[in-house]
Amino acid sequence: MTPAPHRSHTDDLLSFIAASPSPYHVVASAAQRLEKAGFRELRGTDDWTGATGGLFVSRAGALIAWYVPEGAPAHTPFRIVGTHTDSPNLRIKPAPDTGTSGWRQIGVEIYGGVPLNTWLDRDLGISGRLALRGSDGVPQSRLVQIDEPLLRVPQLAIHLDRSVNEGVALDRQRHIAPIWALGDPREGELLRRVAAVAGEDPADVLGWDLMLHDIQPPGYLGVDREFVVASRLDNQVSVHAGVTALVDAATAATQPAFIPVLAAFDHEEVGSGSETGAQSPLLERILSRSVTARGGSDEDWSRALAGAFCVSADMAHAVHPNYSERHDPDHRPLPNGGPTIKVNVNQRYATDSTGIAVFSAAAERAGAPWQPFVSNNAMPCGTSIGPLTAARLGVTTVDVGVPGLSMHSARELCGVRDPGYLAAILTTIMVGD
Q1: Mind listing the pLDDT tens digit for each residue in 132-173?
Q2: CA distances (Å), 221 to each of 227, 360, 422, in order?
Q3: CATH number of the domain located at residue range(s) 89-214 in this protein
Q4: CATH 2.30.250.10: which residues of the chain?
Q5: 290-313 pLDDT per residue, tens
Q6: Burial class (CB in 10 A: 0-12, 13-18, 19+), 223
Q7: Tell me: domain 3-87+231-431, CATH 3.40.630.10, correct?
């Protein structure tokens, strides 16, 4: 693969990230790209009978998309790419307006495994969705994205905390309320500001899911611009690669031999236990219904799963040059060396030898490198949606990911080539050539 396609892919990735500061925006960005490629959205209340071609279902911060080639039998096996749309961040409380000592502040909750020091002294905007009063009694949803420097979590000056460089942890309960103005708290002020940006009457806002995001745009880093730096690389790199692969599979000259599927779940960073998380029956129900809609029986559904394969794509750890002792001495992935295949015998990852064989063979056909990843035995590793999907559907699953640094930070880093490598491998797996 030549450098130009990689740069083109990452240029597009940066645009995707900039437009997607919340899980709800990730779904909207993915849906927009799918619709441009000819996919159409199905509602749960629609009649799906005979539906073929590119299809997708969106629900809040989750999206399930698939492509049914014309004439594909109901028992055609699935090729699933599983990802997640959420990233660790600071989320705004239901009663947000607070303050002390002459400062107006916003109350936030910590979402996921946030390295809090990375959120200090950054210019922060607000994004998410508003739930609006509907004319028929059903709430309507409206996305909102404020890319303005509205808020900041100021660090205490070193003169007032000489121990700051000794690794003293930030008090999680008292010192994370961002400032945004001087004066006493004004009840309803945040809602009025956000509703105004969305062009809505605050009285029509019945609820919200709002969060903070770093407004610094994504970009490139390094002498030869060989690194990508951005917020939310974990896991928008994988979502973007999955969307790219699904569109490429649907528009390939050779029709896929399988039913390619993209499953982008929400709430992975907090355990996936929600209606839109990987522990829910969302994917299972949608795929089962797609089989039934094409005239399939229970037997067809069982056959489709028996031949299915899933790639769980989530960010991985590159070896950190300043903390190399924290990594396994024989497994040290580097940026631009290709995506990693993640292995953990305690099933924090679902990879086995069959999964390795399928992914590595696809990488060879795609002309893309890959790297093995295993955590240091003394360092418990994270997990992904892979084991959840494998257990729920009973399908062979491999966990993979682009290696990066500063995972879960307000700003992360990966190699410029690896997102394109991942997309190329996923396309090969989906098409099945």
Answers
A1: 998 777 889 999 999 999 999 999 898 998 887 775 444 444
A2: 5, 29, 20
A3: 2.30.250.10
A4: 89-214
A5: 999 999 999 999 999 999 999 999
A6: exposed
A7: yes
